[in-house]
């Protein structure tokens, strides 16, 4: 079966979108240092902060997930995006 150019372009585009979305949906681990195998991280980062998800809401989410604290932390140089990060 021969694939024409438009079908191949659509298949390629869908593949790229799936890869990008799977990378974007992973949690971000910003804890510095080297950990031993199977040692859990003490920091969990997820959802980008926004006007609706600020420090107060982030802290509430983290406390509900049994973490001790939570806040919006900036990433990048200079920090261009903030993510909600929980700490144990």
Automatic annotation (TrEMBL):
InterPro entries: Defensin-like_dom (IPR056373). One of its GO terms (biological process) is killing of cells of another organism. The keyword Disulfide bond applies. Residues 44-88 form the Defensin-like domain. Residues 1-25 form the signal peptide. Pfam families: Defensin. The keyword Disulfide bond applies. Keywords: Antimicrobial, Disulfide bond, Fungicide, Plant defense, Signal. Belongs to the DEFL family. This is (rape) hypothetical protein. It comes from Brassica napus (Rape).
